[in-house]
Amino acid sequence: MANREIPDEFIKRVRAAVLTKSVDGKIGKAVAVLRIAKDPAAKYEASSGLVRIDGRPHEIKIAVNQANAILKECGLLDMRIAYPGSDYIPAFLNRHRPANDQGIEAFLQGGA
What we know:
The protein is mainly alpha-helical. Helices cover 46% and strands 10% of the residues.
């Protein structure tokens, strides 16, 4: 996907989506990005703990990875979403990793 020109309007819509306040927190942000870029009907199903994209269920970490790939492609690296099990973990968390990872998990869940 290199050397593709992404319209400014699309980038603005993706930026607005990731800045959206959601009752589902980081999952809601990922779903909002996926709704703009992939599937307007994408949704988080809390009862199953899955995100439905294009009618197919995906684990949350896979959906977050897809949203982060979209953010990266749009040049919005500072807006990527940290979520346990996803590919993206902010550098400061790696640099200051505690002896037990419970502190990181709490931060990623939004509790710390």
